[in-house]
Amino acid sequence: MIVRSLGTSAGALAGALLLAATACGSSHRAVPRSPAGRIVVEQTVRYGGAVPIEGAYSYVRVETSDGRKVAEKRISTNGRASIDLDRGSYELISYQRTCDGNCSSLDPASDRCSTGFTIMNTRSLFAVIRITYGAGCKILFAPASRPTS
């Protein structure tokens, strides 16, 4: 910006305005919000009925009490998943997707079960899902002393 013949006070004002304009927007940054708690899920498989020969993927989904999806994760190969959540009431849904010939093509969700839970503080809530292929699943909540790894 070129300032000519505006005098000392007008030039100083123009410079101050230019400095203020360049500083705007850089000082306000969103601070990440910490979740109120976490649900840690551990899945165990009970064999004794049908077994998915080609394999299967297991999933957990968390929804609000009005059915809005908050998170959905595939359970890892170690049988665990964890989801950070804000305080509130939720529905935990577990389901399986068996492989159709191979795991690049999955069958629709099966062996589904669900239950409600509430996150009230910064502690972890532990859920154990017991799945029996072809017969469904059951979700149980475990004591808070279980490991989180």
Structure characterization notes:
With 149 residues, the chain is mainly beta. It has a single domain, classed as Immunoglobulins (Immunoglobulin-like, Sandwich), CATH 2.60.40.10. It is 11% helix and 50% strand. The strands form 2 sheets. Strands 2, 3, 5, 6 and 7 form a 5-stranded antiparallel beta sheet that branches. The protein is elongated, with a radius of gyration of 26 Å. The N terminus is likely disordered.
What would you say about this model in short?
The chain has about 150 residues and is mostly beta strands.
Mean pLDDT: 80
Per CATH, what is the topology?
Immunoglobulin-like
Radius of gyration: 26 Å
**Strand fraction:** over 45%
Order of helices and strands: HEEEEEEEEE
Number of helices: 1
Sequence stretches where pLDDT stays below 50 over 5 or more residues: 1-10
Which structural class matches the secondary elements? mainly beta
Q: What is the CATH class designation?
A: Mainly Beta
What is the CA–CA distance across the termini?
A: 58 Å
Shape: elongated
Q: Give the number of DSSP strands.
A: 9
Main pleated sheet: 5 strands, antiparallel
Number of domains: 1
Question: In the CATH classification, which architecture applies?
Answer: Sandwich
| CATH superfamily (homologous) name | Immunoglobulins
Helical percentage: 10-25%
